[in-house]
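Study both lines:
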Amino acid sequence: MPVDLKTIFPKLINLLLDTVFVVDEHGTIVYVSDACEELLGYAAREMIGTTIFDYVLPEDLDATLEEAARVTSGKRQLNFENRYRHRDGRAVHILWSTSWYEQDRLRIGLARDVTALKQAELHLRFLAHHDPLTGLTNRSLFSDRLETALHTADRHNTGLALLFLDLDDFKPINDQFGHEMGDQLLVQMARRLEQCTRDTDTVARMGGDEFTVLLTGIDNHVSLATAVDKIRATLAEPFRLGDRSVSVSCSIGTALYPEDGRTASALLSCADGRMYDHKRRQSTATTL
């Protein structure tokens, strides 16, 4: 018995995990497969007769209209990406394969949800430049920002300061309360350092309990001392670790551009050396 393809095709289309959209030259949806409900939260009957561009995120609308015009002019698109608004308000990243059919004056597109893939890519990109425990800038990104800041300071004849911080009591806390509590302390310290610095500054975790802070627009010792005092006061407040209240101290070394060096390595070496000088003095004072 011959198969009636006209009755089979709609069933096949509705089996697709991707969504099929058919729109006219004005963007009005004339057909959409059942997968649209999983994609955007609307049943097919709700979307038919509406304008497809109404579902596009405003930030992506201009690019989407331009792409639709290119497709309508005969340029088939196989990998256009944009974002649509789901019924529940969240953004959905969509990868499109679209063609224009002149005889029918219709644009047919296959829409694939790539939101999870985009989120995974963003997460991997974030991890490449940030510390996985604290979320702070990591050593690699900090080096890039320091180099950029040095070029800017040199070009505009402005100053900057570099701080090197190290907790004095971290090992005893790890030994006494365990590494989980030690990690909590590092996370809380990271948040406090962000709170007492400006958006134009950069706080980084270099590893272990060592942190660096890049302060832009600092060109004298008074401004530097004010910034350091603010950080010391913020970190001097007790930290809450579980049901315990713990106080810690930290050693801070500073370097001022261009007085203490004109290169990243020179400034880091200066700040690092001064931090360890401070730590040794603290240790000597405690012993005495």
Q: What stands out?
A: The chain has ten helices and eleven strands.
